[in-house]
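>> received
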Amino acid sequence: MATVVGYPVINTCLRTGPDMPQYPQMKQILIIGGGTAGTMMAHHLNRHLDSKQWKISLIDPEQKHYYQPGYLFIPFGWYDESDIVKERGGLLPRTTEWIRQGAETIDAESNKVTLKDGREIGYDILIIATGSHIAPEETEGMLGPGWRKNIFDFYSIDGANALYPAMEKFEGGDLVIHVNEMPIKCPVAPLEYSFLSDYYLKKKGVRGKTKITYVTPLGGAFTKPVASKALGHLMTEKNIDVVADYTVEHIDNENNKMVSYDGREVSYDLLVTVPTNMGDPLMERSDLGDELNFVPVDKHTLQARKKDNIFVIGDATDVPTSKAGSVGHFEGELLIENIQRYIQGKELESSFDGHANCFIESGHKKGLLIDFNYDQEPVPGKFPMAGIGPLSLLKENRMNHLGKLAFKWIYWNMIVKARKIPMVPARMSVSGKKIPAK
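>> returned
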């Protein structure tokens, strides 16, 4: 074992020899989580830090890395699992040590992480990129007899795979798409599932025998007024009922219905739900998370509230913006600058503005695009260049559908490898946006 800042460091890297030189007095940056955000940060750190001074290690036990936006398409037969998965090791920089273990606890005061097998790793800087996951056990009855029989999720690979045959067999009735509570990963995905269901069932010839209902805890189709109005109009146009301000109290498996706290009931033949999303239980064990295990941070610097040498990125944060891959990408471009400032003893910049950018698949080979941040809600306009586009904001068209499909290539070749996307800055631009006068 080598020793870094007084704690043993485990040399379990797949990459050894000349690619991983060991120097005396090296400092340690530790990343927990090898998903989108963690992999991006490994590339950023590899490019910007001196490998003679800093050792970069990543903790994650999972061998596979999934393109999670692809989960949406599996139930409709557009993709299968093999289309959206790669081996994690092939995505990490060669100079990053991959520790294929889970983390048991983080001791923020002592600057060390204890692994599941009891070993400890010390760090000088910690980056938490542990993401989020579904927690169906948080809702009474969700994991009852109907789970994966007529109650499904599509926010996990197992859920998406199980939902595919259920959609194939569905011949009509009450199809309910349900959001349990906010925040959730990719807030537009349940809307997309509703639109794609309308399209899929029309092609299948059973749309006329199906009632589609969208059930949400929000006051409308989306969190922001302008986008909510536009997306609500699409719901009406596609004959999808919206049940708003609905918070489920329990699911009655025997009678196939959801019951809200105010007593409203929604019946279903097939329920496609987005369960409560939570951060990693590691945060609860380490006393670093909020009630949903998301880590409180400064929303502009991404520095953890609890300790100044801990930074958090992606879905693991409590920042009030979308939990989406684009957000993690924009966060990463700015976080690497603040980590360099931290190392140099400089004041951090409040640079992250909550920038989010999402394609919304609307069916019939069309889509929409939204681009917004903490202060600016989604509005119509052109993107990324004013007057030229070529993409339109908050407007349904085929170009945005093609953009959605192209995003998979962008993800594997640019997002996870932390490469800049041309003409799309990390901080949101108002260029091309039709912003109403206040």
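>> The first strand starts at residue 2 and ends at 4.
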